[in-house]
Amino acid sequence: MNFCSPGFTTRCSVWVIAFFFTTICVSGAYAQEKDFKPKLGYIDRASLEATAAKEDSSAEAVYLYDSGNLRFSYDERKGLVMLMDYWFRIKILKESALDRASVALTYYDGPDLSKKESVYGIKAYTHNLEDNRIVTTELEKRAVKDEKTSSDYRTQKFNLPNVKKGAVIEYFYTRETPLALKNEPDMWKFQGDLPSQWSEYRIVIPYFLEYKMTLGGYLPLFINKQEVVDVNVGYEAYKGRGISYRFVVKDAPAFTDEPFITTSADYLSRIRFELASVSIPGQAQRRFSQTWDQVDRTLDQVAWFGGELRKTSYLREVRDRINSTAKEPEEKLKLAYAHLQKHMKWDGYSGVGSRDGAKKAYEYKKGSASDINLALVSLLRELDLDANPVVLSTRSHGRIIEEIPMLESFNYVIAHVKVGENEYLLDATSSYTRPGMLPEHVLNGKGRLIPKKGTGRFIPLTSKDSKSKLDIVDAEINPEDGVITGRVNTSLGGYEALFWRGKYNSETDDVYQSDLKKSLEQWQISNLAIKNRDEELKAAVNIKYDFEAEDDNLHPGGFYFNPVIVGRWGANPLRAQERIYPLDLATGISNTYIANFKLPDGYVLEEIPKAEVILLPEKAGRFTYQIRQEDNIIQVNSSVSVTKTSFTAEEYHDVKEFFERIVQQHAKPLRVIKK
Predict the structure, then answer these.
(1) DSSP letter at 90?
(2) CATH: 2.130.10.10, 3.40.190.10, 3.30.750.24, 3.10.620.30. Which one for 292-460?
(3) Residue 46, H or E segment
(4) Residue span of the signal peptide, if any (predicted)?
């Protein structure tokens, strides 16, 4: 697209896709509440007198105002350009925030003039309260340093003057970006690592440009306004109508990396853009927005993806070997999967396409996830199995937005195979997953299946496996010596087994025993025995060891002791009082603890606690806890089961309370007395 040529028509359609927001309608609605219109270089006394952020009293600083204002203009040398005005006003609340007065603005400065960016119009001020007077210090122009930081980038740097705890700093600048360099505005974030009292984004889009705008996040819009306006970008042929948008989020809390989320990009309140089309006089409208069918065809046609699936000669020897060994499709699947798991090592790269070719990676026995799993699909097809690749976005990469078809949404490849009525998802990058079990970093919503023929489709990325752990303790309490001795038998299944195998399977028992002793510092551990390291991946890893633990609370006349000595829930992972984001556990949870403690003759529990049963709504989770005594044996049974993996923000308090009750029960000591 040549954005440097004049003559665009005056037609535009703006698509707005809104998700997650509690306020999602972009229809000209305007919040009829008090507006905020600050003036650059001037500050109010209340801002200087403030000592804490009302959104978060622990914050080191707070954005009093951050604003972005984007408009389009025409430059005779660069053609159409985007002009973005930035304005940030920050209250410094703690000494740790003083480094925010050091600002670096990096921009593209490549060899082609039509694609060069520029940053200009820098203005900056520091406001302080001195002797009960407002003192404003302006940044001198000579204090701004423009440096060449790489072959294609420059950086303008400056330090705001006279900054100290309690000050308010603010700076303003304009960035010019040619559309020949980048045809979409940068994403605007209404939320960041500091609380923000007022975050505002404005944009005026001429009618000859068509953008998809996506609103994301979980904070409501305080102002949500659009109106038709006259647009003059500085070139007569471009004159016409346009749409002006204004979005404001008020009193936004700082984004914190809470437990049970994918990646921060999925939760931050933001707005982003995708160019859909541009219209040029005398030419057909040129569309840039894709459909999922087009993404499917692109992947099938490019050499680094679909082309790799058509190069299979290097796999025919192993194909023949598997065919001579197995006759049933299920057995062929298992042998092919096991072969790729053992033959190739993952190099940690998570791209969609093969860099140097799956054949080369196969020969070197090492490659990317794409190399390994495209080779797996090819081998399964050679075995006449119905196999296809699935492209997806990992948890750290963010969710796929099904309303916006983009190849860039994906960063990983796995395999899908159908045998009879059974469907399996496969990822051979891990040596310890079995057919149908995906690594946890892959469990992220949906993936796109790219078939050999026909139309692609989205499929859920889920697993029937959970984080499964069973601890069985047989112990004897000796109050005279102040020790507890016994044996622990731990079985790790599902994702607990996968984690253990990935970390310890290539190590000696001494490595695991050393880590075990670090977690149980007061224990002496002996006779460690580990079974089923990887002989049968469907079965649990079994760990047994003897222990002796000193306990200063043990006394001959009577004592307290905590009966949950391993696998205890020591803290609630959900700490926040409120949460606006959903919970994504990725997998279910299954923790069981069974213990038998033998007491000396004549000792009994002073009181047997009542059995506890706690349920999450809709049978999403269950916790049971029971203490019994038979003769001189104390029996303990604790079971935690969570079968649902996604919870809404409205369900947060139920889950938090559920976990809290587990922690409370596991922390309660038992009182043992001598008759």
Answers:
(1) E
(2) 3.10.620.30
(3) helix 45-49
(4) none
Q: How large is the average pLDDT for residues 601-606?
A: 89
Could you tell me the two tokens for 415? Answer: 């395999």
Please give the sequence-ordered ranges of beta strands (E in DSSP) within 6-78, or none if there are none: 15-18, 61-75
User: Are the C-beta atoms of residues 270 and 216 closer than 8 Å to each other?
Assistant: yes
What's the rounded Cα separation, in Å, for the pair 273 and 159?
32
Is residue 22's pLDDT more than 60? no
pLDDT digits (tens, 9 = 90+) for 525-551: 999 999 999 999 999 999 999 999 888
C-beta atoms surrounding 611 within 10 Å: 11
Q: Which of 648, 656, 644 is nearest to 582 (CA)?
A: 648
Residue 139 contacts residue 158 (beta carbons within 8 Å):
yes
Residue of 28, 78, 22, 215 whose CA lies nearest to 650 = 22
Give the contacts of 606 (CB within 8 A, at least 6 positions apart).
558, 671, 672, 673
What phi and psi values does residue 296 have, to the nearest 5 degrees?
-60, -45
| Model confidence band, residue 283 (pLDDT cutoffs 50, 70, 90) | low
DSSP assignment letter at 650: G
The stretches of 507-651 forming alpha helices (DSSP H) are 509-519
- CATH 3.10.620.30 in the chain is located at 292-460
**How far, in Å, CA of 258 to CA of 256, rounded?**
6
Q: Span 466-674: which CATH code?
A: 2.60.120.1130
Q: Distance (Å, rounded) from C-alpha 26 to C-alpha 199? A: 17
